[in-house]
Write a structure and sequence with these properties.
This protein is mainly β. It has helices spanning 11-17, 203-212, and strands at 42-48, 55-64, 67-77, 83-85, 96-102, 106-108, 120-122, 128-130, 140-142, 154-156, 167-169, 186-189, 199-201, 220-225. It has a six-stranded mixed β-sheet, with helices on one face. A hairpin with a 2-residue loop joins strand 2 (55-64) and strand 3. The longest helix is centred in the C-terminal third of the chain and has 10 residues, at 203-212. It is globular and about 55 Å long. The two termini are 23 Å apart.
């Protein structure tokens, strides 16, 4: 979705905020309290205080010796209209879908940061993301844009030089796209405000995340709220 957002945070501060100080019982690390982490050894959690929030905290974790360990933390921005259960989301609603999603590949206008091992696709002048519900290429990268995918219903990726300097595709509505649910949901660099449904973080954090992600780690992104029906621990 067309994005439209920055600070730094200490990992320990984020853990306290989420009630997830490394330790025991109810205060186990956040991934240990989740219903599903995607099955890999790497996980990103993006948590907002409530569904109406446009900002929150993003932490990336590694599973080491059977225990989830935080590797980094950063402020995050969400959709301008907050968050909504992924299966109930509608395209154009400016909401970020909650749930647990794979990360098919990274991409960027800038070259892949040194040390990147994750699949990284360079953005070219003719790179588009199709959001046209009538197109066979709905919710897919196209290069060039096919005639059946209208430009007015798509993103010309190279024009978002700040946001798409570095990004990861979020696997929302990606495997078997449902028309009208939404297309082009990414983890990308923050712009000047909230997003149109993506998750965004400062550029330095985005570079670190891209180099941290490993194919063998099977990283996933979990998006949710601190409590309620869309609580991240329910996913």
């Amino acid at each position: 979705m067309r994005p439209r957002v920055v600070a730094t945070a200490l990992v320990c501060a984020s853990l306290v905020l989420l009630g997830a100080a490394p330790g025991t019982g109810a205060h186990a690390p956040l991934p240990a309290r989740m219903a599903d982490t995607g099955g890999g050894t790497q996980l990103i959690t993006a948590v907002a205080p409530r569904t109406g929030s446009t900002s929150g905290t993003l932490i990336w974790w590694d599973l080491r010796n059977g225990r989830w360990v935080p590797t980094g933390s950063t402020p995050a921005r969400f959709g301008a209209k907050g968050l909504v259960e992924g299966t109930a989301r509608r395209q154009g609603s400016n909401t970020t879908p909650t749930g647990v999603y794979g990360l098919p590949y990274a991409f960027g206008i800038q070259p892949a940061p040194r040390g990147t091992s994750y699949a990284y696709r360079p953005v070219r002048r003719n790179s588009w993301w199709c959001q046209d519900n009538a197109s066979r290429a709905y919710n897919r990268w196209t290069e060039p844009r096919p005639a059946h995918c209208r430009a007015a219903e798509s993103e010309h990726l190279v024009t978002y030089r700040t946001q798409y300097a570095y990004a990861l595709v979020i696997g929302f509505n990606y495997g078997k796209p449902v028309r009208g649910r939404g297309a082009g949901i990414f983890l990308h660099v923050s712009g000047r405000g909230a997003t149109a449904g993506c998750v965004s973080v400062p550029v330095g954090a985005m570079r670190r995340i891209v180099t941290w992600a490993r194919p063998e780690g099977g990283p996933h992104l979990a998006i949710g709220t601190a409590g309620g029906p869309t609580a991240i621990t329910r996913y």
